[in-house]
Fold these 4 entries.
Entry 1:
Amino acid sequence: MALRGAVRAARGRWARPLSSAVTPAGTGDTIFALSSGPGRCGVAVIRASGPGSRGALQSLTGTPEIPPPRVMALRHIRDPQSAETLDRGLVVWFPGPRSFTGEDCAELHVHGGPAVVSGVLQALGRVPGLRPAEPGEFTLRAFRRGKLDLAAAEGLRDLLAARTEAQRRQALRHMEGELGRLCRRWSRALTQALAHLEAFIDFGEDEDVEEEVLRQVAVTVRALERDIRAQLRDGRRGELLRAGVRAVIAGPPNVGKSSLFNLLCRRPAAIVSPMAGTTRDVLEVTLDIGGYPLVLSDTAGLRHATDPVEHEGVTRARARLSQADLVLAVLDVTSVSPTPVALGAALAALEPPPGVPCVLVLNKADLLGGHGRSPSVTCGATPVTLLSCHTGQGLPELLEVLTQQLVQLCGDPLSGSPSLTQSRHSRHLGACAAALARFGRGDSGDSGDIGDSGDIGDLAVAAEQLRLARRELGRITGQVGAEEVLEIIFRDFCVGK
Ligand code: GDP
C-alpha cells in the first residue's frame, strides 16, 4: 500500500469543520400573535416574543411592575393609548433565554371572546416596535436560537397536526429531539473517526501514530454504516404514520364496498345502491383505527365497463389501488366458494399491487342464514373477515385485523429508535450511508471492503467521504443547509406557533 504517498497527497486537503449552528437571528423586532386557536373559547393565549416584550407587558398592564419570571399574575389588561380596560386576565413573563423562542417572551391569557382577543391584539399592535407574527415565526426564532433543531421543529409541526394517538406519540418523540440526538451521536463518532484519520494523514510518519489507528477508524465507520442502514431498513414506517396509511376498498361491483366505507366512517358518505356501477369518483376519508391514521378510499367496482363515465371510475380505482399501502378486498360471500384456492383466485383477479398487504372481507354474511359461515375460512397468509355491513356482524373482528395491519405497517412509535418521518430524513440518511460505503474504496471505486489491515485506499478520498457523511447528518438537524428547507418546513405552521 502506498500509504506514505497517500499521506503526503492528502496533507493540506481537509475541509474546515462544520459550523456548529446556523447563526442566530439578528432581528430586533418583537412579534405577537394569538397562539390558541381562532374562534370563541374560554381562554385565549396571546404571545409576544422579542426585546420589546417587557415594555409591551408593562404598557398593557399599565404598571412598570413585571411579575416574577414564569409565575402567573392576575392583571387588568388595558389599551396603552386610551387606558381603557379591555379584560382582566393572567399574564406570564418568560425572560430569555429560558423561554420557548429563547428571547424575552410575554403571554397574556385573556377571555376567549372575539372582541377581547381583537382588542388585545390591536392594543399590542399600537405598542411601538411590535408587529404581528408570520406563520411559524415563534418556532423559527426558537430554531435560530438553538432551542430546537430542525427535526424537533418538524416534530412540533406534526404534533400540532396529529389526529391519532400513535401520531401524537411519534411526533412527541421527535419534538423532544430524539432523532436529532441520534444524528448528533453518529456525527460525534464520525468527527472522532475523521480526527484520527486526519491525525494519521498529518503525523502518520511519526513513530507514535500507529497504523492501528486506521484499523480502528475503519471499524468505527463500518459499525456506523451498519447502524444507519438498519435505521433506513425501518422502511417508510414513520412517514406512513405521519401521513396516514392509504387503504383502498376494492372489489367487483355490488359486493358492498360503499356500505363498508360508510360503516367504517360511521356516516352515509358514499351512495349505496343495488345498481352496479354507482361509485365513480374516488371518495376519501381519514379515520382513526386503534390509534393509527387510515386514509380510506372507496372506489368504483372493478369490472369491464362500457359506459364511459364508469370506465373512467374504474381507471381511477385502478390508479388509486396502485398507490395503496393496504388493500381491503371485498367479495360477496354468497358468490364465492369458501376454499383457499377460490378465494385466492378471486383476490388475484382484483390485481392488488405486488407486496402490498391485503385484508379479505367476505361481506353479506347475514345472507348465509343461521350464525354465518364457520370462522375458519382462510386464504393463504391474507387475513379473512366475515362481515355483514347490514347487521354489523364481524365489524369488531375487522377492526382488530385492520389495527394489526396498521401496527405492522407503522410500527410502535414508542419502541426502538425514532422513526424517519420525512422523506428528507431518509434521503439524507441514505446519502450518508452511501458516503460511508464509499469510504475505503479509494479512487478506484472497487469493492469497498476494508481489510483488518486498515487498508482504506486513498486517505484523502476516504476523509472526504467522512466529511460528506457528516454533512448529510447535519442536514437532518439543520446544522447544515437549513436555509434551503426552512420555508418548506415552516410554511405549514399556523400563525402563533
Ligand atoms: P358496492 O357497489 O360494492 O359499493 O356495493 P354497495 O355498498 O353499493 O351495496 C350494493 C348492494 O348490496 C346494496 O343494495 C346494499 O344494500 C347491499 N349490501 C351491502 N352490504 C350488505 C350486507 O352486508 N348484507 C346484505 N344483505 N346486503 C348488503
Entry 2:
Amino acid sequence: MSAPQQIIEVKELVKKYGDFTAVDGISFGVREGEIFGLLGPNGAGKSTTLEIIETLREKTSGEVWVGGFSLDEHPEQIKKMIGVQLQSSGYYPGLNLTELIELFAGLYNRKVKPMEYLEMVNLGDKAKVRYKALSGGQQQRFSIATTLINQPRIIFLDEPTTGLDPQARRNLWELIRKVRGQGATIVITTHYMDEAEYLCDRVAIVDSGRIIALNSPDALIDELVAGGFERPRAVKKANLEDVFIQLTGREWRGD
Ligand code: ADP
C-alpha cells in the first residue's frame, strides 16, 4: 500500500467469533486530519473494527496499517500514536479529575498540567470533583480529555454522544471539531445521522460486517437524490430539536 496521505489503511479485514462473521472483508482508508465516521445499526461490526485497529482485539484475517505501521508487525508503534476513549468503568471512581489526569500521564510517561486538559474540555471548575460525581456529558468530555494526554495523531471515539441531551451533544461536537482543529485525525462511530452529517468529512456505512457505502455525507445525499429519491412530505424549516434548543438555550450546563 503506498498512499501516504492515508493515515489508516484497512484491507479485507475479517473477524469471526466462532462460526459467526462479525466483520466480513472490510476495506477503507482514513485521510490524515479528517473526521471519519463509521455508521451502521447495532451489531454491524463497527466497534469490532475499531477495536482491531486500536490493537485491542485480534483480527481473523486482513491487513491494517496505522501511520504507516503494520498492525501485525508494529502494534507498539501504533499504540503510541492513538488515543482511545475508555468505557466509564475504566476510571477509578474515588479519584478526582486532576488525580485521574496525573494517573494517565504517568501511564504514558508524560509530564502534563492537568488544568490545561480540564480547561480544554470546559471542566476547569471540576478539577477536584470525583469522576463518578460528573453528569453523563461531563464524563464524556473528561474521557475525551484523557485521550489527548499522549498527544495522539489519531483519536478513536466509539459512540461518544450516546445518551446525552441535545446541549451536551452539541458541546461535544464543538469539542471534537476543536480537537481536529489542533491537527488530530478522528475516527468516530455513531448511529446519529445528524451528528455524522455535521461532523464527518466522510462516512462509511457498515451493515452486517460489510461497507455498503463510503463517501462524504453531501455526496451520499446527492447520489440518493439523483436516483430519484424524494422525501414523502414537505420538510419544515425547523424540527423539534431546533425548538428545544431555541427554548432551553445553548449555554453550558451540568451536562
Ligand atoms: P457494532 O459496534 O456495530 O454495534 P459490534 O462490533 O459490537 O457491532 O458487534 C458485531 C457483531 O459481533 C454483533 O453481532 C455482536 O453480537 C458480535 N460480537 C461482538 N463481540 C463478540 C464476542 N466477543 N463474541 C461473540 N460475538 C461478538
Entry 3:
Amino acid sequence: MPRGKLYIKTFGCQMNSYDSDKMADVLARSHQLDRTHNPDEADVLLLNTCSVREKAQEKVFSELGRLRPLKDRNPGLLIGVGGCVASQEGDAIADRAPYVDLVFGPQTVHRLPEMVDQARAKRRTVVDISFPEIEKFDNLPEPRAEGPTAFVSVMEGCSKYCTFCVVPYTRGEEISRPLDDVLTEVAQLAEQGVREITFLGQNVNAYRGAMADGATADLALLIHYTAEMPGIQRIRFTTSHPAEFTDDLIAAYAEVPKLAGYLHLPVQAGSDRILAMMKRGHTAAEYLDKVRRLREARPDIALSTDIIVGFPTESDSDFAATMNVIHEAGFDHAFSFNYSPRPGTPAANLADTVPADEKSKRLQILQNRVRQQGMAYAEALVGTTQQVLVERASVKSPNQMAGRAGNNRWVNFDGDAALIGRMVDVVITEALPNSLRGRMVSHSVAA
Ligand code: SAH
Ligand code: F3S
C-alpha cells in the first residue's frame, strides 16, 4: 500500500507541539502516514487546538469551514480535531461540523490509530475525549530526535485551578510520568544526538514521579539525574508555578551548571488583591523573594513571565502594581494578554469590568516597558561570552549558524554546518531586538 500523507495544524502551547509530534509518530507507525506541510495533499488532516484564550472555538470552526472543500475533492480525506477545544466541546463539534471524522482530547493521542480505522469504517464522527491518565505515555513509539534539542513531557494537566484558566478542565488534573520512563526517553534522545532537553508540563514543577523504590522524585531530583546522563549538555523546563517553586529547585540553579540560566515563571499580576482573586496562592512580595533568591543562586539568570491585563475589577493602581513587579523582577521578556473570560471557569462568572480599549491601552504600556527592559538586557550582553548550542543554519545564510544561549536568546554567528549539535563559546558583538550577533571563539570536541 502506498504511503499516505498527514497534515497537522498546531495551535497554542509547547505541550501541543509535543503532542502533534507524537500524533505524527503514532500514525506513521500504524497507518504509514508521512507528514506534509501542504493540506491539499493530506489523507488525514488534524487540527491540534488551543482554548486558553479568547475566541479559540470560533477560530477552529472557521478553520474547519475553510478546510471543508478539501473533502469534496478527496472524499477519502479524514478530518480530525484534537487538543483543548476538542476536550471542551466534544460532541458539539460533530453537531456543528458533521464532516469532522475524529474528535480526540489531549490524553487520547495514542488511540488515534483505532479512531482512524473506526472513522474509515463507520462514516460518522468518532469521539474520544476521555482522560485515561498515564496510558497515553505507555503507548507511544520511541521518540524520534530532530536536531540537538528535544522536548520531553514529564507531567500532564494542572490541579491549580487559577480562576481564569481553562487548562484543568481541558487537560485534566496533574499526573506525572514515572521517573524511569522519563529518564529512558532522555537516554533514547541523547543517543540520537540530542544535547538539550526541555522538560514540559502545564505545571512542570508539580512533577512527582514514582521511583522504582517506591519513593517520589520531584523536578529538582529529575534535573540532578538528567545532568548525569551521557550526552546531555543543557536542561530547561517549562512552565512553572511560583507557589510551588521549591528551595531545592532554586538550589539546583547553584548546583547544576547544565541547568540553563533561564526561567519562565508566570506572575500574571502584581496586585495582591488581583492575585488572590486569581487564586494564584502567593503575593507579589513572595514572588519577588523567590526571584531574589534565584538571582543569588544564579546571578546571570534571565527571567520571562506571563501577565494578564484587565482581570475583572483591575484598577489603575492594581495595574501600577503589575508594572512595579515587572521592574522589580527585571523580566527581559513577557507573554502578555488581555483578559478574556473562558467558559466554565470561576472568573467567567465575574463581570468583565475593564473595557476593551482600557485593556489594550494597559497592554501597550506594559509591552513597551518589557520591550525596553529586554533591549537593555540584550545590550548588556554585548562583550560577554555565551555558550551557544548550535541548532541550525541561520535563516539568512548557510554560512551563518544559529543557536540559543543559556538565557534562551537566539545568537547568529559565522560558522559552518559541522558545528550543528555542538556547544560553542560566542562573544556577543551586537544586540538586536529579537536576536544577538556574535563571533565564535571556541568550540567543544564533538560529543
Ligand atoms: N501553566 C501553563 C499556563 C497555561 S495558560 C503553561 O504551561 O503555559 C498560558 C497563559 O495564558 C497563562 O499563563 C496566562 O497568562 C494566559 N491565560 C490563561 N487564561 C487566560 C484568560 N482567561 N485570559 C487571558 N489570558 C489567559
Ligand atoms: Fe492554568 Fe493556573 Fe494551571 S494558569 S495551567 S490553572 S497554574
Entry 4:
Amino acid sequence: MGNIYFDICSIPLFLIILFVCYSRRMTKGNANHLFISLALISLITAVADLCIEIPQGTLPMSEASYVFCTISTYIYLIMRNATNVVLLLFLLHLTQTSFLIRNKVVKVLFSLPYSIIIILLILNPFFHNVFVVSAETGYSRGPLMLLLYIFALFYGITGFVYSIFCRRYLPLRKWLSLLSIYVLAYAAVFIQFFRPKALLEMFFTAVGEMLVMLAVMRPEERMDSEVAMLSWASYQWDLNNILRSHEHVQIIVIQLMNARETRNYLGDQKYNEYLSKIADGIRSVRWKHPHRAELYLERPGTIYLITESDDTLTEEEVNHLLVSVSEDVRKEVGMGVRSETRICLIRCPEDLNNAEDIVSLGHKFPKIENREKTVVMAGDVVTSKYLTVEMHAEGILDRAMRENRIEMYYQPIYDVRSGRFRSAEALVRIIDLEYGLISPGVFIPAAEAQGLIIPLGDVISEQVFRFVSEHDIDALGLDYIEMNLSVAQCMDTTLPEKFRRLQEKYGVDPGKINLEITETIYGNISGVMLDNINELVRMGYTFALDDYGTGYSSIQRINRLPLKLIKIDKTVLDEITTENGRTILESTMRMMQKTGKQLVVEGAETEEVVEALKEMGCDYIQGFYFSKPLPTGEFIRFIEDKNR
Ligand code: C2E
Ligand code: MG
Ligand code: MG
C-alpha cells in the first residue's frame, strides 16, 4: 500500500476550494464553471485514489474489496484524465482563446486522445491490458497503460506549452500560479515515478489549484459580486485579449439611460436586484453558444454582452429581447420602474478593431443624431462624422493642446438700452486638421475625463487676456469680455494667483473681464470655490451666473454669491411662445432686476423673439439673430461696423 496520507490531506483542500468558490459566489461565468468542475473532478480523483489503496492494505482482498478496488480504479483513471482536459479548457477560457478549439477538425483532434483513453478503459474488462486488479496481488499496470500515459501527456504538455505562450494574456501573478499547476503536477509524477508509493500527485494538484484560486480566481477583481456580472475592468481586459487573438465576436452594449434615477428611486440594494434580474433575463435568451454569452457591468447601468460572431441578432430580435427583459423585471421588482434602453451592436473586428474605439462607442452611441432609434448597428454609424469626432474627442483635444489649435471665438452681446453691442462672450473652439471646427460640447467632457480641464482653462484664460490687451476694448465700445470658468477651475486654489500673473503680464484691468460660472456648481459649492470667487471679486473681477434655468439655482444661493449678471439659458427661451412660459420669463426678469442683477438672455435666433425680449425689459440679448460666435478678426470687423 502506498502512503495514503497525502491523498487524505488533499481531500479537505479540494473541499475548501469548493466551499470558498460557493461562499465567494464564484459560481457564474465560464471560467468559474470550469474551475469548479476542475476542483470537483480532482476531489473525486483523490477519493478514488484512496479507495484503490485502502483495500490493498490487506492482501488477498475479499470479494467485496476486490470489486470496490476495481471500480475505484476505473473512476480514478476516467477522472484523472478528465482533470487534464478541463484544466486545458480552463486555460483557454481564462485567456479568452477558447475559440481556437471551435473549428471542427481541431475539436476532433482535441477530444481524440481522451476518447481513446475511454475506449481503452471500456475494453479493459475483456483484455486486461490497461491494468489488472487481482485479489491476491492487488493493482498492477498492463502493457497499454503506457498509451494512457502518453495520451494524458498530450493534454499536459499542450497545456504547459500553451500556458507559457499565454504570458501576454495574463498578469504575471496569475500566469505564474497557472504555470505552478503544471509544474507541481510534473514534479509529483516525477517523484512518483521513482517512488511509486509516495502518492503525492493529488496533494500537489490540490496545492496548485489552491494557488490558482487565491491568485487567479479573485472575484473581487473579476466580478461585480452584488449583481453576479463581470466587472468593467474585466470587460476592458477581455476585450484586449479578444482583439489580440483576432477572434470574431459580437458585442452588445445595453445602456440603461435612466440608471442613475432608477438607482435613486429603488435604493442601492433593490437596484442591484433589478440589475441581476436584467442579467438573468439576458442570460435566458437562447444564445447559440451560451457558454460564450458573458455579461459585464459598468456602473451605474451599462451592460456589455460578448457573444460569438454568428450569434448575431437582428434588430427586431434585440428589441424583443429588451421588451421582455424590461417588462419581466418591472413585474418582478414590483415597482414603477421603466428602463429606458439604448442598444448598440458591434461586430468585432469588422466594425471596429481597436479597444479604445469600442469602449468609446459603447459610451457615446446614444448621443448620435438619431436619438429615436433604440438599436444602433455600429457598422451604420462608425463612419458618421459626428460620432467619429465624439469617439476621438480625447485624441483630438490632446493633439490640439500640443499643436496650439485651441482658438477663442467671440459672440457679440446686444445691449437693449443703448442699441449697441456692449460685450461679448469668449467661446473656445478646436480647429482640427482632420475634422475641422470642433465645438466645446464635444471636447470639454473629454477634457474633464482626461484631467485636462485645468490646462485647457489655462490656455483659454491666456488667450482671453491677450485678446483684451491687444484690442482697445473701450474704443470698440465694449465694456467687458465674458469668459467661462469650468467647475474644476473654480476649485483650483491657484486660480487667483494665475489671474494676477496674467493681469500683470498683459496689463489688463480686471474690470474688463466678466467670469461666467455655471449654475450646476451650486450643487456642490465648496469652501475653495467661494474663497476663489470672493478673492477674484476683491481683485476687481465681476461674475455672471450662466445657464440659469437648467440647474439647481435657489434664491438663497443666488443671493449668497456676488453676481453682477444672470444669463438665462436658451432652453428657457423655447417656452417664450406659450403664455405660461412668457409669464415665467417676465417675472424672473423682474425678480432679478429688483435684486440689482442684470439679465442676459441667450439663444435668441429670430426677430420676433428679440422684439419680445426687448418688450419684456431684458437688459442684454445674445443669439444667432445678431451673430454666431466669430473668429477674432471677423468679430472685430463686426463690432467696428455695428458700433460705429
Ligand atoms: P454657454 O456658456 O452657455 O455658451 C453659449 C452657447 O450657446 C454657445 O455654444 C453659443 O454658441 C450658443 N449659442 C449662442 N446663441 C445661440 C443661438 O441663438 N442659438 C443656438 N442654438 N445656440 C446659441 P458653444 O460655443 O458651443 O458652447 C457650449 C458650451 O461650452 C458653453 O455654453 C459653455 O458652457 C462651454 N464653453 C464654451 N467655451 C468655453 C470656455 O472657454 N471655457 C469653458 N469652461 N467652457 C466653455
Ligand atoms: Mg457661457
Ligand atoms: Mg449659457
